[in-house]
Amino acid sequence: MPASRLPVDGAARRVGVTADEVRRHNLATVLHRLHRAGPLSRSRLASLTGLSRSTIADLVAELSSLGLVEEGPGLAPSGPGRPSPMVYARPEGAVVLAIELAVDSLSVATVGLGGHVFDRRRVARPREQASPAEAVRDVGDLGHPLLDALPPDHRLVGIGVGVVGIARRSDGLVHLAPNLGWRDVPIGKMVTAEFGAEQPVMVANEADLGALAELRRGARPGVHHLIYIAGEVGIGAGVIVDGEPLLGAAGYAGEAGHTLVNPTGWPCRCGATGCWETEAGEAALLRHAGLGDTATGLAALDALSERAAAGDSAVLDAMAEVGRWLGLGIGNLVNLFNPEVVVLGGLYHRFYLYLASAVLQGARSQALAAPWSRVVIMPSVLGADATLLGAAELALTPTIADPTGAGRAPAFRT
Amino acid sequence: MPASRLPVDGAARRVGVTADEVRRHNLATVLHRLHRAGPLSRSRLASLTGLSRSTIADLVAELSSLGLVEEGPGLAPSGPGRPSPMVYARPEGAVVLAIELAVDSLSVATVGLGGHVFDRRRVARPREQASPAEAVRDVGDLGHPLLDALPPDHRLVGIGVGVVGIARRSDGLVHLAPNLGWRDVPIGKMVTAEFGAEQPVMVANEADLGALAELRRGARPGVHHLIYIAGEVGIGAGVIVDGEPLLGAAGYAGEAGHTLVNPTGWPCRCGATGCWETEAGEAALLRHAGLGDTATGLAALDALSERAAAGDSAVLDAMAEVGRWLGLGIGNLVNLFNPEVVVLGGLYHRFYLYLASAVLQGARSQALAAPWSRVVIMPSVLGADATLLGAAELALTPTIADPTGAGRAPAFRT
DNA sequence: TCGGGTTTGTTCGACCCTGCAACATAACTC
DNA sequence: GAGTTATGTTGCAGGGTCGAACAAACCCGA
């Protein structure tokens, strides 16, 4: 119950609703809660959803017959009154293949309803290897064994792909991925071909997925307004507004890395000057640490990590300077979005210890008192798994939103 | 049908739905379309909402008995087949009092369903007069005659207030209004007292209301992602995402004026340095035009306007410089929000002619190709009326969202 | 001028979903 | 072991929408 919300009136109100849509909505509501909050008793489900016990019984029965939930052996924490058996989401009832195409690695995982990770694989990926076709083939080599290992009763319902770049949701086209050297790559179609999937393949930006993962599986379950800052080579922001991902008109929203913060700063790969990521991105960190533009990539970061741990003052100063810029940009986002939580991921998660104080100071200096007073800045709790888990959440979403699958279209359906 | 939208699954899905809520939703859907799109035939309503003809007949009958719509004399543009009488929103069925507390003026208007303006009043307001109590009393002097002039069958359903400052939606508290010299002013309660209103009084920021007005009554009816830039003394941004106002956790979202764009720039009233509004706000314009900090207020802007019209090159250069900064900030917003339209209001609407080319150039240089390719930058079509009309839309919203009024609470209910 | 074609409004019965009330069940408590 | 309390179950009622059949009103062409 977001107190500050206007009476609904926009997009959601544009179309009429009928009885079967009510059913679908309520099935989705129950399944969503079980997926996100874990096992719940039926009576708790009733009070959380506002539906009657009889309706909950009916809904649970249908979800159970679909194989999506089961009533477990456990009982709710006991008190007076008849004990209530717990209802669980069945991970085997809906399984997805999650794929992450990162700068330095490729990852895949099989994940089931409720967030259960069946298995996962990760391989390092040299930054030079730039071909999308090779990457997809490698992902296939990683993913096929995982799918083959899945018992036949485990139902595969979708594939989710997270990619470091600007992705269009509607068809899985990667418009631009500078860190991979990709441009207009139809990664959705390629993954579909690789796995011969009848299931929908959904592609999204790593920052958007990090935000989704932190929203659903992060440290603050009740949060509805969240920003995830993905610091890799560049900076991306995944924004959750009122529990929904902010996508914008075409799904390109959240490109915070390319907002101007310093007109007298460094030229950015995007063509502009003084973008946030030129001041607070990986390159800035290495630059300030005296590693210049020559040293890049994983090895440089490892070196940085060691020197920071050893107390190298040049590195610590670099951290403070980058942290300050990072904080200033976060202040901007706080003023724009008024979030409850800002989660730092990727690079910033790794070096949070050294960045934290400068980040907080920078953000505090830029943010207005009103939005600042209630925001929490914190490192990612999912760490390196955020994007991969977000890809799983993305792929599970259609099944949760429509458990009976009546309204499902084949691929690229978002 | 926003193609790029994830399957709904967040906040809206958290709670169960019952039959009467379906009815309310469908009544709201029909009324909303009539309010926003104007008269429609019943068959058109059916095809737009996806509901059957019988249901539409029933819904229209109920709305008609509530006095909110009526079936007009006009007929739908003819073709083969039985002609369809038009359904109109009845302005008298739901009337609101809209109030605008601007820097240089106070305005009130009575506005009915469908956006019909019954009457309006505006008085100049010297910038020095800072007392909230005086302002509310002046608004009362303006508003009472308008309400008294309303025939008894005209149903007053609410009061909407637009204010130049940071307002909390939940209770109408103005947290901070630097341009009015206000701090923690309970303007909602004061307006309620002034009008002795049983109807809800809703308070919002002028930029948010400008955005709402441009969304519903602006030049591009089909748009769902819109940003309204309110340029007065400072800069505020009203953001519409997927047809809904972006409020953030506490309603403070959209403070774009206080995002850092130039660390070596001027000190801002907010305490930080180089905020967008120090580079592209009214003060910057006067500064660049050589009017320094001494000349402020309406007179200075009028002088500027005359000199610009006369071709004064110093003023035109100032416009270009401010326009460039304005454009850079707009580029930032385009990258962050991926909107379909950016509407320039207030100061920027007034001087659009002189700003336009620099704005476009600045925005183009900062925005990424993908979001830039589909965005339209344009001056407000509502001009000085934007905030006032937005306040009316805000106050009408609860009635539209729940035409029967079953779920209505007294005041400050949002 | 008239009849066929077409589209729309109306009516009525059926279906679906949820809520309610009454009852059954199973713990806890004293 | 009986009373208390909370939960699951069952059957029925109510509300909302849909679909089909019918009626109404216009256009068009002969």
* Helical coverage of chain A, percent range: 40-55%
Protein structure class of chain A: alpha/beta
Strand content of chain A: 15-25%
Distance between the termini of chain A: 26 Å
Annotated CATH topology of the largest domain in chain A: Nucleotidyltransferase, domain 5
Largest interface: A-B, 90 and 90 residues
| CATH C-level name of the largest domain in chain A | Alpha Beta
**Oligomeric assembly:** homodimer
Rounded mean pLDDT of chain A is 89
Q: Which CATH architecture of the largest domain in chain A?
A: 2-Layer Sandwich
Shape of chain A: globular
Would you identify the regions of chain A where 5 or more consecutive residues have pLDDT less than 50?
1-13, 407-414
The total of helices of chain A stands at 14
| CATH homologous superfamily (4th level) name of the largest domain in chain A | ATPase, nucleotide binding domain
Strand order of the largest sheet of chain A: 6-5-4-7-11
Describe this structure in words.
- Two copies of one chain form a homodimer.
- Chain A is an alpha/beta fold and 414 residues long.
- In chain A, 40% of the residues lie in helices and 21% in strands.
- In chain A, the strands form four sheets. In chain A, strands 6-5-4-7-11 form a five-stranded mixed sheet, sandwiched between helices. Chain A has a five-stranded mixed sheet with strand order 14-13-12-15-16, with helices on both faces.
- In chain A, strand 4 (95-101) and strand 5 form a beta hairpin.
- The model of chain A is unreliable at 1-13 and 407-414 (pLDDT under 50).
- At the A-B interface, helix 1, strand 13, strand 14, helix 10 and helix 13 of A face helix 1, strand 13, strand 14, helix 10 and helix 13 of B.
- The structure holds a DNA duplex (30 and 30 nucleotides).
